[in-house]
Design goal:
Helix 2 packs parallel to helix 4. About 65% of the residues lie in helices and about 0% in strands. It is mainly alpha-helical. The radius of gyration is 18 Å and the shape is globular. It is built from seven helices and no strands.
Length: about 190
């Protein structure tokens, strides 16, 4: 999660913008729409904080515990809500992925290069788990991106009218999925 400084800041901006849009949706939403917007806002801002380049601001030694606690709580909530729909299951996977990345960042964890090697793991975490998360997010991004393609309006076809309000949530979901891929690739 500590790649090149410029790409790190671009990822921070993308994730923070997505989190801000989640907050805007949270204000106007109700029920499940509101819960989804809250989850996306949390993921967006959490990813933005985690993506800050270490060359600019090194995370404190205890920072990984804060990430793990916040996203662990979000995972528990996602587990409770996952019984009602697939969108909550996706938030559960995202929260667990954030806990995993926090664990990899931990001093003495798999990402430190000391205790992680002693435990038999590579410096970037558990390769099979990282690969599974990369595959999940790649499929998620492709499927979510396909939903962004406009479809014909009716029997005669036609595109959406200019100025017609389109929801940005699917585009934000694609960008957050791509952000997760970028963060996982740097493990």
């Amino acid at each position: 999660m500590h790649g090149q400084t410029m790409s790190g800041w671009l990822l921070v901006a993308l994730c923070a913008g997505t989190g801000a849009y989640g907050l805007l949706r949270l204000r106007g939403g109700r029920g499940e729409h509101r819960e989804g917007a809250a989850g996306e806002a949390l993921m967006g801002f959490g990813m933005a904080v985690m993506a800050v380049p270490a060359a600019v601001l090194a995370p404190p030694a205890w920072g990984w515990m804060l990430y793990a606690a916040v996203f662990g709580a979000a995972a528990l909530r996602g587990l409770w809500l996952a019984r009602t729909g697939a969108a909550h299951a996706h938030h559960l996977v995202g929260s667990l992925a954030m806990v995993y990345m926090a664990w990899v960042m931990a001093p003495g964890g798999a990402g430190s290069g000391h205790a992680g090697h002693a435990a038999g793991y590579a410096a970037g975490g558990i390769p099979l788990l990282t690969g599974a998360l990369l595959l999940y997010y790649a499929v998620y991004v492709v499927c979510s991106g396909a939903r962004l393609i406009p479809v014909a309006a009716g029997p005669g076809g036609g595109a959406l009218a200019p100025g017609a309000r389109q929801e940005l949530a699917p585009a934000c979901q694609v960008s957050m999925g791509m952000g997760m891929i970028a963060m996982l690739l740097t493990l």
